[in-house]
Amino acid sequence: MFIRSILYVQRTYVVSFCLWIALSTVIPQLLTKYGCESDIKARNGRTSTVLPSSASMVQNSTIYFIIAHPDDEVMFFSPSVIEFSKECHNNKVKLLCFSKGDADSDIMGNIRMRELYESARILGISQNNVVLIDEFKDGLNENWDTRLIAEILKSKINDRASERTVLVTFDQDGVSGHPNHKALYYGVLNYIKLVGGRSHDTRVLILQSLNFLEKYSSTFLTNVELFVENISRLIFSSFLNVKINISFFNSNYSTQVLKIYSDLNMLSVSYAAMAYGHYSQMVWFRYGWLLLSRYLTYNHLIEI
């Protein structure tokens, strides 16, 4: 019975993953090649995998991914990092990492610092656009000063009036409940207050935290959303002028949301950035994360 259950889970996972490849990669490429809608071509070819309307796009901007530890950029934000880095969006993407991942030791912190640069390179970000801020110690019991975070952000972020700026970080739950992640959310809020409020050219996007089942649903829930999105655009939007939106998130925000889906190419880059870039972190349970995490195939960003 136990072996049968294991085999059933394996088959279900493989079927779901193959379906995800079809929905995220094969079908969009076929639509790009044979479809007649310019909207479909614009959003599903090599240029983009963002499914909501183009009004939600982030383009012609300097984007700061504000992370707590080396590997956060892959484990949680890789779909967004890769998407926003695409040439068609004309963005400049930067990483601001607030620790070197020295929870275990300073030696490991130095290793992880070098790995961050390698991971960023794989994701398409040059070392010049990676800023490692060695002001805070990594740790579940470390309480970071959110006012100091705000001061550091003010010194690192170019807030010229002529430049569109986008800040991307964790939400108040920090994805995993990690206090370092949550501190960045409140640090960004303090930064906005520190600079006298947000200008019309500054946007703040936070990554929606998932509950346990959503977080480790792999491609299952993403498949449902992709299927409904494709049906909505192909049938309802084209012929009935009706749009359907489905999400498994219970969002407390009524503002604009941006849903970013990885395709097979993007997922391959994420795997490389984690498994090769952050080699020291590839202990046994990380492979489970790579197989099951929904954050590698989908980001739900909320503008606040």
Automatic annotation (TrEMBL):
Q: Which residues form a coiled coil?
A: none
Domain of life here? Eukaryota
Query: Per its UniProt entry, what is the enzyme's top EC class, as one word?
Result: hydrolase
Q: Does the keyword Cell membrane apply?
A: no
Identify one Pfam family in the record.
PIG-L
Provide the Gene Ontology terms for cellular component: endoplasmic reticulum; membrane
Which parts pass through the membrane?
Answer: 12-31
Provide the E.C. number(s) assigned to this enzyme.
3.5.1.89
What InterPro entries is this protein classified in? GlcNAc_PI_deacetylase-related, LmbE-like_dom_sf
Note whether Transmembrane helix occurs among the keywords. Answer: yes
A GO molecular function term, named singly, is: N-acetylglucosaminylphosphatidylinositol deacetylase activity
Which keywords appear in this protein's UniProt record, sorted alphabetically?
A: Membrane, Transmembrane, Transmembrane helix
GO terms of biological process kind: GPI anchor biosynthetic process
Similarity field: Belongs to the PIGL family.
Q: What protein is this chain from?
A: N-acetylglucosaminylphosphatidylinositol deacetylase
What organism does this protein naturally occur in?
Pichia sorbitophila (strain ATCC MYA-4447 / BCRC 22081 / CBS 7064 / NBRC 10061 / NRRL Y-12695)
Q: What high-level taxonomic lineage is stated for the organism?
A: Eukaryota, Fungi, Dikarya, Ascomycota, Saccharomycotina
